[in-house]
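Help wanted!
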Amino acid sequence: MDSVYMVQTLLTGLANGAIYGLVALGFVLLVNAVNIINFAQGEFVMLGAFLAYTFGAVLSLPFWAAFLLVLASSALIGVLFERTAYRPLRQADGPTYLVATMAASVAIRNIAQNIWGSVPFAYDEPFGRRVIALGSYILVPQHLFILGVTLVLVALLWLFFFHTRLGKLMRAAAQDRDAARLLGVPVRRIGTYTFMLAGATGGMAGILVAPVYFVNLDMGFIMGLKAFVAAIIGGWGSIPGALLGGLLLGLAEQMGTAYISSAYKDAFAFLVLIGFLLFLPRGLFGERVAEKA
Amino acid sequence: MRWLAVERLRGWRWALVLLAVSAALCLPWLAGTPYSQGLLNLTIINSILVLGFYIIFGLTGIFTVSQVAFMAIGAYTVAILTADHHWSPWLALAAAPCTAALFGILLGLPTLKLKSHYLTMATIGFTEVVRLVLINWEPVTHGPSGIRGIPTPVLGAAPLDSSRMLYYLCLAVLLLALAGVGRLRSSRLGRGLEAIRDDELAADTCGIGLMRYKIMAFALSAFLGGLAGGLYAFHMRYVAPDAFTLEQTIQTLAMLMIGGRTAPAGSVVGAVALTYLPEALRSFKDWYMAIYGLGLVAVLIFLPDGLVGLFRRSWRRLMGGAAV
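Answered by r_m:
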């Protein structure tokens, strides 16, 4: 195990971690704005990737056009999701949401399978198959792009939630729905905006990760799970925590794969999760709002 | 007969239960083909599986996603013990739920303090790890190709090898399990679990030992899951990791929610409905999971108590609000 191998492993781990962080931002967004967990967030990513393929490769639109179209249609999907799986259930208890979003995610996956089939597609815009060689290390530009976008998104979300009126209203609604409504916060409309944002964030993650993996039906589920783990590691609801948790998870997973066992790659994420839940359940950045009794 | 929880079964309820049991006893004579007999067996096995899920989710209010993992553990326990180690099938069938319950406790212990989504996530992780171990631990689990040649239990001189005999074994297990769960609901433990579901803090304040009660819920739920798995192994005579997928998990969840999570009967109703639904929807095969998923969302919106709740409400209306 030479040091070149080790550094390359670290780089790959960080690259994967940025992806988890990006997807985790979708979870964090919903937690901050409506305080629910959306098991279908990963499916938004999958849909985003397939839409990117459709717009970019099938209709051969330029990358920027495909990007904007994916954002718009993902936002629409988010609203559709809100109308079917969230709004009618507003009065229900916590587990019901979990079940509903899980059920919706299965339905989304099946619908996608019927539209696009189960054969994976390749989509490698905007960088093609180019790589950057730095001495003996290899960097993939797409990974740097993802990391950059995730960083920008972290900053934007943070500004949005803490320094804009709408963001503050969203946080208020998430903390106590009824009290917020009594104070005149348009809780319903905010729910719609939130899911638009969550859909768009998921779709953007989809178009960005499409070149990294093959575009396939299972990418959403597994990425959703890892991102969820990343969000917990980072501290539930924390915006920078999502990115940091993602990076940490990516590193742990890649190191485990390289030095322990590659067959159990997906198990490392959950071992890390269980470790965190046992010893640091608040994650790296802690939960700002205490669990309501 | 106290253990049968007779006090809960008065008047028409007894008639209903007797009717259902005798119908279940006669059903195999209506099943003309081995295929339809197989479906019957699967229905009963699914009922036991979902009943286990009812204990943890319906009764205790803990949303786990690991019921199918316990089923897998039970099925593999039977497969490994009988096919590879030549144990008696009966012993293996007894070992299956115990192994699963042990894993249930192992999963419950570290995750007990977790709330809502954290716990759900941890159980997803557990399920995923179980699946990976089944695929990768080749010397014991035979990897992705699974284990073949599972023998069938022999009762006295008569081998239970016909599908019909296995049906009666499964039915007997299901009835015992239903009676047990019925008994559980009126016991101190069961009421404690319901109290935890309704308000954990209040239950804790009333002196219900959360730790002990939740561990029991985990163990019992896993026990039934393992039992269903063991019977499943005898039914299929072959186990492989791909039988225990996310789809199966969602199906178990859908069965409980559609049948109704407020009563054990809901598990059976849901299992019957959703084992036969794919048969009715055969021409929409490609859309199964979409129908499942959206149907489940619809049930959550319009029938939060499931079919059993619907039945209960219409019965009440029929009887003019009396007699229940």
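OP: Thanks! One thing I noticed: Residues 1-7 of chain B have pLDDT under 50 and may be disordered.
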